[in-house]
Design brief:
By secondary structure, the protein is an alpha/beta fold. It has helices at about 20-30, 50-55, 70-80, 100-105, 145-150, 165-175, 185-195, 225-245, 245-265, 270-280, 295-300, 305-315, and strands spanning about 5-15, 35-40, 60-65, 85-90, 95, 115-125, 125-130, 140, 165, 200-210.
């Protein structure tokens, strides 16, 4: 029997027939051997179930159950998990082959830390388009300090597959918030990292993040999705402020809220009002709105609000 600690990979899957096979292969092809992969096929209406059925004989546990959200599916998988380490991993991304082995090596029993990989994007389902996206937090840091620095520019990256989490830490932080849909990872990892002593960076390991998927949750901007974005941002910033109340932490939290205000304007004034209240509580934000070329050309002349309205009107 292997003396290596068991790692449980928990994967939600909903209508991911084009990608889930590759995602599963990237787990099964890990250089680390003692892994269990638990996939929750969450009400898929495409051929995801058929793809996963072919994987069952290879040590993949498939749970077919209507959960209704990625957060609920992740919690369902976690309840089945037996490992001392947990990795939440989406069905459309890929892991570098040595990731889990190197992340386990950085952690030890009883260590109050999370191991983190590098990451980057690839487009049009072509791994040759992959480009790494280095960030200042690619180093060992205390958990809450990592959060403050990561959210400073309003664009944190907390994709679940980057992280390997000791089970005891995951249990202490609590389950994924099942009321959230869009950017549920922000609230979860803010809460988790506030519990963690350290975030340990593992260079040479990579999460390959698939971008540009038609109909992906991250591209869905319904009222419900915006409500989830707002709630997750407010909850996540509350977790940070519960641990650090210094001006730098307050400004970081104001920035992440202001960035969302920029993104949802001019829709949903009630949600923007909640975010603006947090920005004011934190003493104001210092962040510029992001946008395309025409938006940035117009913004200095007509202001960001009118520039955003014009951007929405012409779709650029």
């Amino acid at each position: 029997m292997s003396q290596e600690p068991l790692v449980s990979v928990c994967m939600p899957c909903h209508n991911a027939e084009r990608y889930v096979g590759e995602a599963v292969e990237s787990v099964l092809n890990q250089t680390y051997q003692n892994i269990e992969l638990i996939v929750v096929n969450d009400g898929s209406t495409d051929r995801s179930g058929e793809v996963l059925e072919r994987c069952k004989g290879r040590g993949v546990k498939v749970i077919t159950e209507r959960c209704g959200s990625a957060s609920k599916a992740r919690n369902r998988a976690f309840r089945e998990a037996r490992g001392g380490y947990i990795k939440f991993f989406d069905a459309d991304d890929l892991l570098s082959p040595e990731m889990i082995e190197r992340q386990v090596a950085r952690l030890s029993d009883g260590q109050d830390a999370v191991a983190m990989s590098e990451w980057g994007r690839f487009y049009n389902d072509d791994i040759k388009t992959f480009q790494p996206n280095p960030q200042s937090v690619w180093r060992d840091m205390k958990g809450v300090d990592w959060l403050v620095e990561a959210v400073w520019d309003g664009q944190p990256m907390m994709q679940a597959g980057m992280f390997l989490i000791p089970r005891k830490l995951a249990e202490r932080a609590g389950p994924w918030n099942e009321e959230l849909t869009l950017i549920d990872d922000f609230e979860y990892f803010c809460r988790l990292f506030c519990e963690a002593g350290e975030i340990l960076f593992v260079p040479g390991t990579t999460l390959f993040y698939r971008s540009g998927i038609d109909g992906s949750l991250s591209a869905h901007k319904s009222r419900r999705a915006r409500e989830s974005e707002c709630e997750s941002t407010l909850l996540g910033s509350s977790h940070i402020l519960g641990k650090r109340k210094d001006p730098m932490a307050a400004l970081a939290c104001a920035n992440i809220c202001q960035d969302l205000i920029f993104n949802i304007y001019p829709e949903h004034p009630d949600l923007r009002a909640r975010l603006e209240e947090r920005v004011e509580e934190c003493g104001g934000a210092k962040i510029a709105p992001s946008g395309g070329r025409y938006f940035q050309l117009l913004r200095p002349w007509i202001g960001w609000k009118l520039a955003r309205r014009l951007q929405r009107a012409v779709g650029k």
